[in-house]
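Q: What residues go here?
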């Protein structure tokens, strides 16, 4: 089958190629498994860039070529004998999971997965192109839920002008929080201002953090950037007994214990998402309370992947949401 795979190029850097002979799971479906023909798949910018750079949680070189990605939308083309809630012809979102999945989700032509895994039937009021970014949206939903945001609280979203942060800002606003987005990418900050979910959008490059992010100003901070050495700054910008949410992707976290003790902070780790997160996200998107459309920059055939991934590797600030057509 066709698949987008990471390869080691002649110059030693990683690239992406569309292959036509990637192994496909062809055994008969078991119990509650479904087989899906992908129609769209979305790039997961942070995770896939980490892999393109051979980062701290990337596959090692000796495991290449490999397939990555955790968000796709497709049509159910076959169902197992115990499938209850899905039928042939249904459109579904699929996210990668380590459970009963037989073949990988993401940038592949066909996926076989249990219907009670990270599978969501899409309603008619959700555009399937938009749903191709529901993996990143699921992470945003999970992060906001873990932050336990309440009406009127101030929340700072760091790295907030990327796809996940932009969605999180909208979810946090729906939850009643007063959102500040902090980022360093000017074009993305302008996009955040145009979406309008954040009450404040600030450029934290240079001395921007010290100028705009006051000490003890926020009830919660959600850090999607994962920049090493920022932990103490994240802690000092929350109020007494504030919450600091650290999203997956880090290798380790170091902070001054006395600083955290003085603030009596709660540090929470956030990773991935579950079906409940997807269902809540889908509900908000269907009601136009969370908008994915402004975040989609490219909808292109899968065979254009090499140039997109080269940009992701070399200058990720040029990209926002990218969806491949299969």
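A:
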């Amino acid at each position: 089958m066709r698949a987008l795979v990471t390869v080691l190029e002649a110059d030693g850097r990683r690239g992406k190629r569309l292959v036509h002979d990637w192994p496909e799971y062809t055994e008969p479906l078991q119990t509650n498994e479904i087989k899906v023909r992908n129609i769209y798949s979305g790039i997961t910018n942070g995770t896939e860039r980490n892999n393109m750079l051979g980062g701290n949680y990337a596959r090692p070189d000796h495991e290449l070529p490999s397939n990555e990605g955790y968000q796709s939308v497709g049509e159910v083309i076959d169902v197992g004998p115990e499938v209850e809630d899905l039928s042939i012809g249904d459109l579904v979102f699929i996210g990668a999971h380590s459970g009963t999945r037989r073949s990988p989700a993401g940038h592949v032509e066909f996926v076989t997965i249990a219907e009670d895994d990270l599978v969501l039937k899409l309603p008619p009021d959700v555009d399937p192109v938009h749903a191709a970014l529901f993996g990143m949206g699921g992470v945003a939903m999970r992060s906001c839920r873990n932050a336990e945001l309440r009406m009127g609280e101030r929340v700072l979203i760091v790295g907030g002008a990327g796809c996940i942060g932009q969605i999180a800002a909208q979810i946090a606003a729906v939850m009643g929080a007063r959102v500040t987005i902090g980022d360093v990418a000017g074009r993305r900050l302008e996009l955040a201002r145009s979406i309008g979910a954040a009450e404040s959008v600030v450029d934290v490059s240079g001395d921007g953090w010290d100028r705009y992010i006051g000490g003890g100003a926020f009830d919660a901070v959600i850090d999607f950037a994962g920049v090493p050495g920022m932990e103490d700054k994240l802690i000092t910008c929350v109020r007494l007994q504030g919450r600091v949410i650290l999203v997956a992707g880090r290798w380790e976290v170091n902070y001054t214990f006395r600083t955290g003790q003085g603030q009596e902070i709660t540090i929470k780790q956030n990773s991935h998402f579950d079906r409940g997160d997807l269902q809540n996200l889908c509900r908000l998107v269907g009601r136009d309370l969370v908008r994915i459309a402004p975040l989609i920059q490219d909808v292109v055939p899968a065979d254009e992947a090499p140039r997109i991934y080269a940009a992701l590797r070399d200058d990720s600030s040029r990209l926002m949401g990218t969806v491949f057509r299969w």
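A: Context that may help when evaluating the design: The chain has two domains: 3-133+292-325, 140-270. The chain has a mean pLDDT of 94.
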